[in-house]
Amino acid sequence: MPVRENVATDAACSGRANILPDWYPATRELVERVLQRHLDSLAARPAGHSRLTEAVAYSVQAGGKRFRPVLVVESCRASGGDPEAALPAAVAIELVHTFSLIHDDLPAMDDDDLRRGRPTNHRVFGEALAILAGDWLAVHALRLVAQCPVDAAIARELVAALAEGTERMIAGQAADMAGERQPPQREVVQFIHRHKTAALIETCCRLGALCGGSSAAHREALARFGESLGLAFQVADDLLDQTASAEQMGKRTLKDAAVDKQTYPAVFGVAAARAEAERLAAEAVAALEPLGPAGQRLADLARYVVSRDH
Known about the structure:
By secondary structure, the chain is mainly α. It has 15 helices and 2 strands.
């Protein structure tokens, strides 16, 4: 029984915008519990004569959908593995994502005052400590992913996959900044989308597949799914920056147009961007075909990505 392949049509016609799948809260709660236990263990350490641990916890505890760690857990489940085995990698990916948000909000980058409905890290702790909190999160994530309960060879692959995904994400952010106040260019937008967002989402799927002990064929299918899903996610994000309110998003909106960022709507227009997001979501679901019914939860996530309103 294959997974549903008309995800774009379903998303457009169902009227269920911003409805997370029924199973999602339980997986997110599992991730939240493990994240909190890890933060509690960090808080129990000596303070080190600074507020570094406090700054780290402030941004990690800011909440959010936990989309990326959920994707790690569900990719592991789709691979036939025990979701518990993927939890260190799930926490690690959330730490990398949080690091990227802290740095993205800095005055030298997007200069944001609001993230997830609360003041950004540097507004609370100052720029220097925010930079260091992001640095710490990136390095600590590599330590965590190496602790997944897998054999040594798989552990090395996990570390390499996380490092590569993080490097690509940073390259995408650099291209995003370099493209500001420049004429919109298709090639630049595609590079930014594939690196800044899609690379880390693809990495989530790779990590989950490795933790789940999937076959090489299923691993590749999940990687293709993750890349298409990540591209759909970023196109949808570009659209939300233009169409959603700051209250919905928990951060400032209309900021991309204000600095002439390289976005899909800027290059192709809003209507074409919506069509592209739906096409990419359908492409993501098609990539799951080799997994059969085991890929259904991941297909649900593709539907959510193109129908969300924040």
